[in-house]
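Notes to self after the call with IL:
- keep both proteins in one doc
- input above output, always
- annotate only the second one for now

Protein 1:
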Amino acid sequence: MSSKENYRIELRTAIRQLSDRCLYAASKWAAEQLVGIEQDPAKFTPANTRFQRGSSSIRRRFRTNEITSTPAAGVSYVSTPVMEEDDIVDGDFYLLAKSYFDCREYRRAAHALRDQNGKKSVFLRCYALYLAGEKRKEEEMIELEGPLGKSDVVNGELVSLERELSTLRKNGTIDPFGLYLYGLVLKDKGSKSLARTVLVESVNNYPWNWSAWSELQSLCTTVDILTTLNLNNHWMKDFFLASAYQELRKHNESLAKYEYLQGNFAFSNYIQAQIAKAQYSLREFEQVEAIFEDLLRNDPYRVEDMDMYSNVLYAKECFSALSYLAHRVFITDKYRPESCCIIGNYYSLKGQHEKSVVYFRRALKLNRNYLSAWTLMGHEYVEMKNTPAAVEAYRHAVDINPCDYRAWYGLGQAYEMMSMPFYALHYFKKSVFLQQNDSRLWIAMAKCYETDQLHMIEEAIKCYQRAVNCNDREAIALHQLAKLHFELERSDEAAYYYKKDLERMEAEDREGPNMVETLLFLAQYYRDQKRFEEAEVYCTRLLDYTGPEKETAKSLLRGMRMEQSGGPSMDVEHFPP
């Protein structure tokens, strides 16, 4: 039997088991991977050829080596764990409790199972109590502090659940699903180390519960923690590592893992979306846009991850495409946090920042911990010059995820607006530590160093050099490097960077004040170096302009001609950048 067929069998079984325990998010994830497995061509029929589609073009675009199957040579996976079902069959009471659970009547579900001792029943009872506590916590947060305020409210069921699940684990009567819930409780209580240990036990005994892997990933905040996990080498571990690498900003390693997984899961929408996320972090917007267009063609009612697509359209200022996407998600499901963020981005691009904030706030009412909404709302407050509100929004974002470089960058911007460069620099340093390949962050740091309060020009130069190495798309760093070297009276270094900047402006067919400034400096520099032919080239180009630079160029040309003919040279005041 092929590895792909084994994966199908495992995932079909897992979907049934996860759904039976009301772990619907994990069940949905498993189902998406099931239909993402490349079909055997011999078994294609009109009914099951839905996934022979254009996504293969995206798949090929990101794969360097064709992988025919996993495990590949040299990779050995452990044998698939067998899930032991309960000896005790709970029957009718379990069905009743599951019906209550599906109707979101969590306490009724837990009460219906109060006398049932099977592992499935114990898990569902505890899980229902956990969700009942979460539901009450959300209600109290709104009652006490409002939908966007801070609150110290906690889940009131955590203590009793920890006591019961800890006892079951010590007695050896807990199943992998109970371990998952125990890990979740420990994480909420702040016992992160023990939570990691328990979640590793859960995924080693039952590797198909993606929810358990996701909780484990959230506890792996450094590469060192990730490498110390004692995980079985099941194929689900590859999905986990790919996702964990992405969160730890090891984007190339993440891409390599996902490309490897596409050997069997060639048509997985999930993998395509994750590849798009990695490319987004690398600022490869053209490729990201192509992937999301393909995803929407094949899954037109998809809302998940589409807020990232809207960020790309926003950055590229694609008004019509963003308008179409906003309309599409509004019709599909307007009360999803992703939908609200997409609509908020649309209004922001139109310059309607107050209306944009309304939708970001709506997203946070739907999901208080929705990171993108906090960060984007902070950006809007910056645009509205409401810096206290911006700082508050960004602080919420970093509380949720301290690894979100955008929120740290936003805090830096806010304090920069308040003319507090020391604070701004502190936050810019945090953002650049998390995202070292983003030229915008290095430029922001450089500008802080340039302020009158700091005036650390050498440090600013180092930051601009890093920005150039990070492919400064805004074309700011080269020009600033030239100006700073001129200020420090380093004419040769200034000329080098002005020439580099001129080459870039010519390649991009750009005009403007920077072009004039560059031509003037180079004309004067080569005149001073007695390289009159090169100086004349730049002076001649300046004659095409109509401002004072034209008269300056004429004076330079007259002076050089007189000097070449043996007459006294004319002093022309050097043009300051």
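Protein 2 (the one to annotate):
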Amino acid sequence: MSQDSKVKTTESSPPAPSKTRKKLPVLDPSGDYYYWWLNTMVFPVMYNLIIIVCRACFPDLQHGYLLAWFVLDYTSDLLYLLDIIVRFHTGFLEQGILVVDKGRIASRYVRTWSFLFDLASLIPTDAVYVQLGPHIPTLRLNRFLRVPRLFEAFDRTETRTAYPNAFRISKLMLYIFVVIHWNSCLYFALSRYLGFGRDAWVYPDPARPGFERLRRQYLYSFYFSTLILTTVGDTPLPAREEEYLFMVGDFLLAVMGFATIMGSMSSVIYNMNTADAAFYPDHALVKKYMKLHHVNRRLERRVIDWYQHLQINKKMTNEVAILQHLPERLRAEVAVSVHLSTLSRVQIFQNCEASLLEELVLKLQPQTYSPGEYVCRKGDIGREMYIIREGQLAVVADDGVTQYAVLGAGLYFGEISIINIKGNMSGNRRTANIKSLGYSDLFCLSKEDLREVLSEYPQAQAVMEEKGREILLKLNKLDVNAEAAEIALQEATESRLRNLDQQLDDLQTKFARLLAELESSALKIAYRIERLEWQTREWPMPEDLTEADDEGEPGEGTSKDRGGRASQERPSGPE
């Protein structure tokens, strides 16, 4: 093989694959991965928060399980270290957009107090074990600085759980347990410092049978702390100053804890009542109204049963008010996910635009009818249509007993009455009596809401009218002649309207021409007047004539006056 062929072979050969280093992804702080990591961090934080103080105050616990504590300690330290790495790969929002630039994320994280606390919580204080021995767990107290992650995990869980009130109560009970646990550990440590069995207040002497066991020591201390912090009493009186100080501190802590518990429970109960008031109508006002107006007992019983049905079966009648704080688009998506399958069953709404159905879903009003209650009666003006979500309704005769048909879930009625179809023989009036057999849940769509939505979709309106016309033809309730006459009348009316529009346009054109001519004439007259003014200004005015006129006027007045006086002095003619 020649050297040229070798070169060509070398050039044509594919390049060797380069080893790419996988990069850790950036976590969304509101995503699932970050949420589950926070829940994972709950365990090492709770371990350090509960176990370290217990090991420090109960020496037997520290000495008996030393190897297990080493494994758990350094496992929690490893999770702490991984948590710092996760923090360096957790994005943040800037102007509503998630920042995924790791350089900016790291720069932002290292400037926060959280970074300092996280570093301080990982300071290897365990190295002092080499000099002081491995039985001093208090050297790991800096691990408590990671407690904010515990609170963050609880906050995220509270917003995600379907039972927030139950979670709040559970969280409160956990806090109470931690406080009593710490207090019991401090009580046992104080008893050991003062001397076991020295008086009735401290822990009994472990030399007594049964009190030397570790389980008994912890349970006795926990029980004693519970009695103090719950202010139940029945505790021995303190005998020393240290014991008095401990009791005073516990009493103050008990008062604060009692106030916290009462406030938290009141908040939970208030939230539960607020949620019930938002989901279900307030029946107390209706009861009071009926009592003031002396409504008969039978009708009052029906109203109370209706409210009871809503409460027991968790039925909601004010979905619009519940979702009103959501953005419009998000509210539409929630309503579509809940009700779109029900609306798409209606024949006249099939094959309609998806955007039209989404707007119609927001207009659906849930209604619940009691047993024996009429949804509509024959001859009523149809202003809404109904879709059966749950329950059974009967088409009955005028006597209310004879049943012609039974309508079940998924069916609908009254859809023709909300569409103005030409030639409809029923005249948009109900043609049957519909009665609820049991408790029935319906969706109501009013004519006004449908008209408001269809005003933006003229093609969909035409399609729906055509489908309604087909349904009326099948039911023999469409007068073709009346429809043709109405169509002809409508066409004639439209033709007249077009003629009137044309005539109005002609009049507007003529009026515009007259206005233009008037404006032109006005401009010409104004120009002529201005020209005459300039011409009159150029005419000569003799000054002597002006002076003569000015002098002559008083002279004439004098002669006149003299003449007047002369005429007065002149004697009259002979008599």
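Annotation: Confidence is low (pLDDT under 50) at residues 1-20, 554-575. The CA atoms of residues 423 and 481 lie 8 Å apart.
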